[in-house]
Amino acid sequence: MLRVSDSAPVQPVLVLRLSNRSGQSASCTENLKEHGLSLIECFTLEAAQDAVQNGCRVGLLIVTQEAELAQLDKYESFVSNNRISWVGLVAQELIAMPRMREFIGEHLFNFITIPADLDHIVLTLRHAWGMAFMRDEQHSAATTPVASSADFAMVGKTPQMQQLFNQLQKVARTDASVLITGPSGTGKEIAALSIHRQSARRNAPFVAVNCGAIAPQLFQSELFGYEKGAFTGASQRKIGRLEAAQGGTLFLDEIGDMPFDMQVNLLRFLQEKTIERVGGTETLEIDVRVIAATHIDLAEAVKQGRFREDLYYRINVVCISMPPLADRGQDIEDIAKHYFARFASMHNRSLRGFSKAAMNAMLSHSWPGNVRELVNRVQRATVMAEGRFIQPEDLGLDRGNEQSPLMSLEDARAAAERVMIRRALSQSRNQISRAASLLGVSRVTLYRLIEKYNIRPDMMAAARPPFLGGSAPDIEAPK
User: 436-456 burial, b if ≥16 CB within 10 A, otherwise e?
Assistant: First the structure.
């Protein structure tokens, strides 16, 4: 006979209850605690996210009421986007409902119906923990390598960067076209290089092309090459960037700056995987993976007629978004220390690190230039510093941070609410009921917040990708 105390997982179990009602679920968790299991009970998404950061690798999702099914959308991204092995504890009558069955099939390691035997629950949790442990071991053995170049490396431990590393690792296993978006200086080329180095093409060339740095009249010959005599000055054959990347990866940086008439040539290559050099007649088969990057909104460029719609969908098979440095918190300190170690050994071996004032100045700076700006400021400081510790002045930052005054808590809350409302409306295509469900509020509350923040329908339309080839449904009127 299996004894619960002998089978308890060695790690705490994250218990996510979608409601705080007493009943079978409360009784079940109390019995599990009495038999020696370490449970971290959460009733909100925020609390569950904190528990994940504390190292939980097994989760018990409890769904006992039909009304709770509406909350599954809210928790779906959280449940699917971490390394937790989830076990569902689900009321018997809910199993037949399509939404519950879909959620179980897509996101849960296993499920148990209520009422359930305690030994059965613990055995399933222990099995889930074992699978999570195996995944962690595999992840540690194949840790995403830190991509590096002469400019800067990808350094980060925040959830945003861990999610990014996970995405890079996933897309590296395929040959799908990738579009990397994000502000300038966030490391889009380094992300592309990381994908290449983790892929089956790692031993073949990685060729980077800055589409904004090539004159429009030279673009075709740069990309496809040319034959001797193709034009004045073509004294010998030259292979293009695509041919140079044969078997490897071509990275097209700032693809939004590509001349419009060249976009159709790139589209033809992506469809046929063949090229012809300028002035030549020979058709060459080219095996190259294309990764593109941009800091502009390509969907808006399509809407304005500056970028081909068919090319947009061809390169945007997988989209990866690079997070701004200002949103990455602790990573700022880690990146600064990483590059301090590199530059101090080159420029000033007497330096010992950053003063507290310098670190505070960096943490409160808005970083419009993102990682590139931080790297440049750290390098400047290692050259300019005269004491043993880097000061804000050495970094070119203000001690009092007067240029970036701290936002009040009320203003920060209001700004966050505006962003989340617009994002929910964008994802729901301005359907109020769906947006309210995503935000976990009532329709009445959402209408009140829309009016409070003066979020107009045209602003909401601008916040979402355009409906190409059709019109989006209008925002619902209050009922």
Answer: bbbbebeeeebbebbeeeebe
